[in-house]
Amino acid sequence: MDAATRARSDGALLSLRDVRLSYGSTAVLNGIDLSVRRGQAVSIIGPSGSGKSSILRCINGLLTPQSGEITVDGIEVRAQKTDAQRIALRKRIGFVFQQYNLFPHLSVLDNLTIAPMRVLGRSRAEAESDAHALLAKVRLADKAKAYPGALSGGQQQRVAIARTLAMRPDLILFDEVTSALDPETVGEVLNVIGELADEGQTCVLVTHEMRFAEDISDEVFFTEGGVIVEHGSAQQLFGDPVHERTRLFLQRARGEDRAGRAARRASSTTD
């Protein structure tokens, strides 16, 4: 049974099996096994440098592992060798990065319509209708004519999410999308992602926001040193982790969460 057939039989939209990635003698991923069913929200947590973002980049073909199997809805990612094949794959996989990567010379509306028109062949009328609906969805309906430089970081990230949704992807990858934001704007971005998950959008998130990961996730994977140390439901992993390393990480991360919330409260009081 090949990888694509095996993934479909497991009911997985996304499947990784024994994925290994190295840069020279430096191992980054050491045998990653992960699967995501359609409609699930899955979080990947762990210390910096544990391979979390590399997993996302392997999923959409930005990085090519030396070995292992990656399938997205039956498509074998590593078998997509030509530019046309990779473009076709990335139509189905949205990616929201830490940086917003908006076109600064285009209005918000044009940022949302350019890819659907050029890549998917939609008419301007259809693309603009979708764009306005998506801007309303991320609570930026009044910003269609604005340019990215006139928006806050949180607003730009919400535009980036709307732009990803405009391609109607099967799967969206979120890579630390709040890490570049002012603490005051983190919540508005997390609220949008939470609503998408509630609506059944399949998501894989790399995040340091532990409370958010616990609330949103159907399943959580804890990584360290390029391996998955532990995975399970959010309730199990956050409430009763099996591995001592997971417990230590969560204790430290929760302490940082509390310190961050206290700092934000102090900032709002002085402002």
How would you describe the overall organization of this protein?
The chain is an alpha/beta fold and 271 residues long. It has a single domain (3-270), classed as 3-Layer(aba) Sandwich (Rossmann fold). Helices cover 44% and strands 23% of the residues. It contains ten helices and ten strands. The chain has helices spanning 3-9, 52-59, 83-92, 108-118, 124-137, 153-165, 183-198, 210-216, 234-239, 244-270, and strands at residues 12-23, 26-37, 41-45, 67-72, 75-76, 93-96, 171-175, 202-206, 219-224, 227-232. The strands form two sheets. The chain has a six-stranded mixed beta sheet, with helices on both faces. Strand 4 (67-72) and strand 5 (75-76) form a beta hairpin. Helix 6 runs parallel beside helix 7 (183-198). The chain is globular, with a radius of gyration of 19 Å. The termini are far apart. The model is unreliable at 1-9 (pLDDT under 50).
